[in-house]
Amino acid sequence: MTAFGFRPGAAGLNPAAPADPAEEVLGPDATVDLAAARARSGIDEVLSALDRELVGLVPVKTRIAEIAALLLVDRMRERFGVSAPRPTLHMCFTGNPGTGKTTVAMRMADLLHRLGYLRRGHLVSVTRDDLVGEYVGHTAPKTKEVIKRAMGGVLFIDEAYYLYKAENERDYGGEAIEILLQVMENNRDDLVVILAGYADKMGRFFSANPGMQSRVAHHISFPDYTVGELEQIAGLMIAGLGYRFSEEAKVVLRQYLNRRRDQPWFANARSVRNALERARLRHARRLLEQADAPVGLDALTTIEAVDLLASRVFETRESA
Ligand SMILES: Nc1ncnc2c1ncn2[C@@H]1O[C@H](COP(=O)(O)OP(=O)(O)OP(=O)(O)O)[C@@H](O)[C@H]1O
Ligand SMILES: [Mg+2]
């Protein structure tokens, strides 16, 4: 029984679906062109975009490439009539804030769609409040509605451990977990659930919910970025915004990142993005303050050291 009466997943709905009933089963002596299948699937575009656009995260990228390979090889095996149950792809992403979990989950949804694993390949991102109600009878419809929206794609549950409150017996989170467990088992060919959050809290959540632990096939951890990686991320982000750093600004950026990393509320790549937004504000104000001189493209697109040095990050060290 599925958790509710909506179960698509018919292969015919998906143009990329592996099992094409019209396709003849190949004989044992036939061969298939793996390279051509790979090119047709478009996975290389996703994987190389992932490599280009996301700095670091080597273990994460490796795992994604392995999953892609597995799904492609599974499709080739099916051509010969060798069928294994579809692999379970529910995942858990652990890591500190701003380490790329949400970003990678979106890429994953796209990849799984291209490989014919997911019909739609969209991502529905939720937290406890989207799933758990406040009164009796409120939680099940809420959770089912979210699952319905996510069908054919990825259901991304951020800070998943808040679903479970050990200290509160009358909490409705348990009800949401029960429904999720059923769907993760029964609809695993049409929905991928990704649980995300901090490693230690997630560990405690799994200890208290072994059913959840056993349904998650991939535990992927997102390490904090090194200063060098944060510099590269800043470079990508600033280029994406149509700016560049002056040579002096690059030096100050490194000092900034070294200091920022040791301060409270550091959120890896998200802190870099926020710092760059503030640098843009200071850059614009600086240009307007010097508005009597003519301004060229270079001035309009160059972040200077002063735009970063005005940050509070540089004050605290001196006053400390
Ligand atoms: N490796 C990376 N390379 C380039 N940009 C990155 C990288 N990782 C994260 N970013 C950027 O940093 C920002 C934050 O990333 P994201 O939201 O994916 O982090 P998160 O792990 O989901 O954080 P949180 O736990 O706070 O939700 C996004 O703008 C994302 O594009
Ligand atoms: Mg996130």
TrEMBL record:
The keyword ATP-binding applies. Keywords: ATP-binding, Nucleotide-binding. GO terms for molecular function: ATP binding; ATP hydrolysis activity. Residues 87-226 form the AAA+ ATPase domain. NCBIfam families: cbbX_cfxQ (TIGR02880). Belongs to the CbxX/CfxQ family. This is CbbX protein. It comes from Mycobacterium bourgelatii.
